[in-house]
Amino acid sequence: MSGFANYEPDTDRRALGAEVATRPAEEADLEACARLIVARTGGSVDGRRRRLLGDLQDPRRYSAVACVGDEVVGYGGVIWHETTSADPPGMAPTGYYLVGLIVSPDWRRHGIGELLTVDRMRWTAERADTIHYFANLANGPTLDLHNHLGFTEVTRDFTFPGNPLKPGTGVLLRAPLKKNR
């Protein structure tokens, strides 16, 4: 198994009636966010929580959560990436990037990933004209979601700091943003 959600493009459980709200993450949400991330990627909850706290304190980063009642059921972030003259050829371009979209397994296929992505695109539209995203080519659900939201392929030959994707397994995408500034 790849660690991604099972690819079920014709399954949509939004009709189950759960009230899902997205909002900016707060410090009180970070433990739940860290647990979601660690359940998917491994590592330390405390270490991940500290990194998320740093994200909250950085004005060029944004963290969003999806909640059902008081329960955090999804997380996603936006980071600013800037290239330098020391970067290797093929470095992803300067700009804002969607990162870390994770939805609790029990809440997948409820439209939560889309809600979080739209929220993060809205935040970024207040700051930029475009947004980037990169994904594993094997992650059909996220590729379909981002295609639906206007993302198009830029390249499959790129590097990004800290990117865990092996060469040839990822795709870099970009979407224009509506002006909200």
Cα-atom radius of gyration? 16 Å
By helix and strand content, what is the structural category? alpha+beta
The total of beta strands comes to 7
Query: Under the CATH scheme, which architecture would be assigned?
Result: 3-Layer(aba) Sandwich
Secondary structure tally, helices: 4
| Main β-sheet description | 7 strands, mixed
CATH fold annotation: Aminopeptidase
What strand line-up does the widest sheet have? Answer: 1-2-3-4-5-7-6
The CATH superfamily is identified as Gcn5-related N-acetyltransferase (GNAT)
Gap from first CA to last CA: 42 Å
Inertia-based shape: globular
In total, the number of domains comes to: 1
- The percent range for helix content is 25-40%
CATH C-level class: Alpha Beta
Average predicted local confidence, pLDDT: 89
Low-confidence stretches: none
**SSE topology string:** EHHEEEHEHEE
Strand content: 25-35%
Keywords: Transferase
Pfam families: Acetyltransf_1 (PF00583)
Organism: Kribbella pittospori
GO molecular function: acyltransferase activity, transferring groups other than amino-acyl groups
Structure characteristics:
181 residues; alpha+beta; 4 helices; 7 strands; 27% helix; transferase
Write the layout of secondary structure elements.
Blueprint: E1 20-24, H1 30-41, H2 45-57, E2 62-68, E3 71-81, E4 95-103, H3 112-125, E5 130-136, H4 140-148, E6 152-155, E7 170-176
Parallel strand pairs: 4-5
Antiparallel strand pairs: 1-2, 2-3, 3-4, 5-7, 6-7
